[in-house]
TrEMBL record:
The keyword Amino-acid biosynthesis does not apply. The keyword Oxidoreductase applies. Belongs to the NAD(P)H dehydrogenase (quinone) family. PANTHER family: NAD P H OXIDOREDUCTASE-RELATED, NAD(P)H DEHYDROGENASE [QUINONE] 1 ISOFORM 1. This is NAD(P)H dehydrogenase (Quinone). It comes from the Bacteria. Signal peptide: none annotated. SUPFAM superfamilies: Flavoproteins. Residues 10-176 form the Flavodoxin-like fold domain. Keywords: Oxidoreductase.
Amino acid sequence: MPDTRSKPPRHVVILCHPEQDSFNAAMAAAYSATVREQGHEVIVRDLYAIGFHPVLKSAERPGPGERQFADVAEELAVLKDSDVFVLVYPIWFGGPPAMLKGYVERVLGSGVLPDAVYEGTAKGVLAGKQLLSFTTSGLKEIWLDEMGQLRALTQAFDHYIEHAFAMAPSRHVHFGHITPDMEPGWARRHLEEVRGQARAIVRALDGLVVAE
């Protein structure tokens, strides 16, 4: 059956790392290049580069008199036609950077009341879309597992976002012991895994289109 979609699927990559030459930036670039090669659209939002302000303002709190600021409206416009929502960030002290938490609060949470989250009726711009996360840490994965850190992060962040904003089941890929002296071979291997995940997402989306 021919591909009848009017436009290619859109992947929105949210990069959250203060260093422009970080391994996180390399992952975002590898993912983006791979899906573009497959004919999909990619938009990368580097939160530090664009100077995103993560602090939720009083006027933005959901409820009567809520106000939406221009920077949030811009992000929502980018997310509106997305098919895949990709997060790329380091784990700092057991959780995502404050910048990314603020993005969730200000952008994804815009106009979302607690009751809607509880009832699963918060149908925002990401409803039904896929969530894919790539994370890194300077510590080895075995230590993170012993501390239960990855399980806790996945449950408290990934699964919460998935449920709160009515998204499709999420996927999380983590790379531990990412340090400045990391062997180049390991870096290449990790980046190839990122590319593999990108190709898998593309195949899944293209398969859905054919099935329709």
